[in-house]
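Thread: quick sanity check before group meeting

JM: Hey all, I'm pulling together slides for Thursday and realized we never actually wrote out the predicted structure for the chain we discussed last week. Dropping the sequence here so it's in one place. If anyone has concerns about the input, flag it before I start.
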Amino acid sequence: MTPFRIALAGLPFPESPEIAVQRATAAIAEASRIEARIICFPECYIPGYRLGARTVPSPDPEFLEHSMTTVAEAAAEGQIAVIMGTERFVGGHLVITTRAIGPEGELLGHQDKVQLDPSEEPMYRPGTERHLFEVGPLTFGVVICHEGWRYPETVRWAARRGAQIVFHPHFHEAEPGAYRPTKFADPKNTFHEKAMLCRAAENTCWFASVNCAEPGAATTSAIIRPDGTLLAAQPYGQEGLLVEDIDLDTATGLLASRCRTFA
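JM (edit): ok, ran it. Output follows.
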């Protein structure tokens, strides 16, 4: 057994980009205190997902870069890796991304959102590459929101290349009149949480999905075992860290590796 402690940051939607940074650094410190080795934040947590119901200030390249420096310093201080949902400019175009930061505060790289939701296309440019990252014995991939729900190939790409876990930062807010779940993967709810189970089971890898603490949202943060069963889920709308030890040895990637691909 190779245990590895992970944390998912189910934080409230930030009232401002500055508050997002403050809450993120506090969550990093807390995750470090309880000996998590990596923490993942929701989609675009800094500065906040700008296509939802809330108002988010216009993109500011200098703020984004400065905030990521602050996050890296917090990672180094806590000796913990961080997957931060954010934005960045690439060739003058805004992209949705995650910034992977190592436990020394070093930049491991970015995973840009390759498969945009149609509603995001007027604002963002899609990414063009997929990446794997390593932290100690852990190899992981990242898929962001829509691409994890609708494009299972993105998770399989990582699992076929050795990822034991795929992190899935997303943002899902309550919609007027929508069903409000009280139990995970409720048949009356949308397909999204059932998709979490599938992403793990169809690839024999761990799958960790993190949302903001959004009362009434159709999804919550959850960690799924490689056999497609639920290890843990955050109570709906409840702020806090979801922290669990996962056994890396159970992530064999067997079913992903058996997929016969065709040109």
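AS: nice. Helices lie at 17-33, 61-78, 146-150, 153-160, 192-201, 254-257. Residues 61-78 form the longest helix (18 residues).
JM: adding both to the slides.
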